């Protein structure tokens, strides 16, 4: 009933105004549509002080014309959809009250403490529910001028067979000493596309590239990029737990909330039935 709701919301303020004027002096009525009346007081403040008289007349006349059209529509709406609107308003009130009560119960009783062991257990049992939407990597890199005294050292550093935390520390040290830009968050998963935005890596086969190239040195017109890819996961593989931890926590809390409210409904029903407050006529 979108149209009915729109009409009702449009006309309700005027309906309230009209309904509250049952004892006004009839001589102050400036317009009437069926049982709805527009009074002189309703026009107060409509025209700003200093407005020319002919403009004032036009403003008041237009307002009255609009009011008349709206009251005609409202009268028709009352006869045809008022019962339906009243039902919808009752249903909305019931839903609002129920929601507010459930929210109050959840805030008071829901256990929001989720253990890491619960998160890991859920992830292990439902890992197929978390496919990656894009390829992700763990990587570090340094961006340097092509002609740099330690260029060879950087190349050897990112190309190490055993690339550990000490290598990352050395990269950061060299970058700091020569004022080079870089990225060293080796434990953070980032989209491969983000790495490609920072480093000019071009490939038509992400999986093959990442499988074969753990160490990457790329040149552009003026810069050289030293990249070490530490780990990767291809799109549609299972997303790592690190990326899903907060999501899983929300899922667990939502399950608890559903269980809490289901139990609440059962307890309230049992209490009402025990007290004889529930009657079923079948």
Care to describe what's here?
Strand 1 and strand 2 form a beta hairpin. The longest helix has 57 residues, at 53-109. Helix 1 packs across helix 2 (53-109) and helix 3 packs across helix 8 (241-274). The protein is an alpha+beta fold and 282 residues long. It has helices spanning 2-19, 53-109, 116-125, 151-158, 165-177, 192-198, 206-212, 241-274; strands at residues 29-33, 36-39, 136-145, 181-183, 190-191, 215-219, 223-233. It has three domains: 2-82, no CATH class; 110-125 and 239-271; 132-233. Strands 3, 4, 5, 6 and 7 form a five-stranded antiparallel sheet that branches. The protein has a two-stranded antiparallel ribbon with strand order 1-2.
Structure summary:
The protein has 282 residues and is of the alpha+beta class. It is built from 8 helices and 7 strands.
What's the helix and strand layout?
Elements (H helix, E strand, L loop, with lengths): L1 H18 L9 E5 L2 E4 L13 H57 L6 H10 L10 E10 L5 H8 L6 H13 L3 E3 L6 E2 H7 L7 H7 L2 E5 L3 E11 L7 H34 L8
Antiparallel strand pairs: 1-2, 3-4, 3-5, 3-7, 6-7
Helix pairs in contact: 1-2, 3-8
């Amino acid at each position: 009933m979108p149209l009915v709701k729109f009409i009702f919301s449009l006309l309700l303020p005027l309906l309230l105004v009209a309904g509250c004027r049952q004892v006004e002096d009839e001589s102050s009525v400036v317009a009437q549509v069926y049982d709805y009346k527009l009074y002189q007081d309703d026009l107060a403040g409509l025209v700003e002080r200093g407005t020319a008289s002919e403009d004032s007349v036009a403003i008041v006349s237009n307002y009255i014309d609009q009011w008349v059209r709206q009251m005609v529509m409202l009268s028709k709406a009352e006869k045809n959809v008022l019962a339906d609107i009243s039902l919808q308003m009752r249903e909305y009130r019931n839903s609002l009250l129920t929601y507010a009560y459930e929210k109050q119960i959840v805030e008071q009783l829901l256990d929001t403490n989720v253990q890491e062991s619960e998160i890991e257990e859920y992830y292990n049992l439902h890992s197929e529910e978390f496919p990656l939407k894009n390829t992700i990597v763990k990587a570090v890199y340094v961006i340097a001028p092509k002609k740099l005294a330690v260029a060879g050292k950087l190349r050897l550093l990112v190309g190490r067979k055993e690339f550990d935390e000490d290598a990352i520390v050395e990269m950061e040290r060299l970058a700091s000493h020569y004022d080079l830009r870089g990225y060293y968050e080796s434990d953070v998963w980032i989209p491969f596309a983000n790495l490609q935005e920072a480093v000019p890596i071009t490939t038509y086969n992400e999986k093959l590239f990442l499988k074969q190239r753990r160490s990457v040195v790329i040149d552009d017109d003026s810069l050289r990029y030293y990249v070490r890819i530490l780990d990767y996961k291809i799109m549609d593989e299972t997303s790592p737990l690190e990326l899903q931890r907060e999501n899983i926590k929300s899922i667990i809390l939502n399950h608890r909330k559903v269980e809490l409210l289901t139990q609440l409904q059962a307890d309230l029903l049992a209490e009402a039935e025990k007290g004889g407050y529930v009657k079923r006529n079948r």
